[in-house]
Structures are given as structure tokens and as C-alpha cells.
Amino acid sequence: MDIARRIIELRESIGMTRKEFSEHTGIPIRTLEDWEAARRTPPEYIPRLLAYQLLYEGLIKEME
User: Fold this and answer.
1) pLDDT digit of tens for each residue in the chain (64 aa)?
2) Residue 47, Cβ neighbours under 10 Å: how many?
3) Residues 44-52: contacts with CB under 8 Å, at least 24 apart
4) How far apart are CA 51 and CA 39, in angstroms?
5) CA-only gyration radius of the chain, Å
6) What does each C-alpha distance from 12 to 4, 35, 36 come to in angstroms?
């Protein structure tokens, strides 16, 4: 799976718009748009880091 598709799937899996995801993760919206459109390629660790962040936040919510 390519990086652009993985980022889109991560964002969609939590039901956020690009703007919401941008604000939530601190990634500038233009950067996120470029990544998702494959105009720019983020470092390969970015999708893993985002997935980890979302998983961690999900686990924290379950504990509350």
C-alpha cells in the first residue's frame, strides 16, 4: 500500500475531515493535502507514527 493511501485510510478510520485531522495531529493542512494527493511524499515513518498516535489515544479513551 502506498503512503498516500495509508494516510487517507488512517484519517477516514476515525471519521475526521482533513481540517480536523490537521488540527488534531498538528500537521499543516496543505502538507496533509499534498501527502494525500501524492504530490509530496512524507518520510516512511509518518504513517506508522500517526497510527501509533491514534492507537494510543484510543487506548487512553478506553481507560477513562
Assistant:
1) 699 999 999 999 999 999 999 999 999 999 999 999 999 999 999 999 999 999 999 876 766 5
2) 20
3) 44/3, 46/3, 46/7, 47/3, 47/6, 47/7, 47/10, 50/7, 50/10, 50/25, 51/10
4) 21
5) 12
6) 12, 14, 12
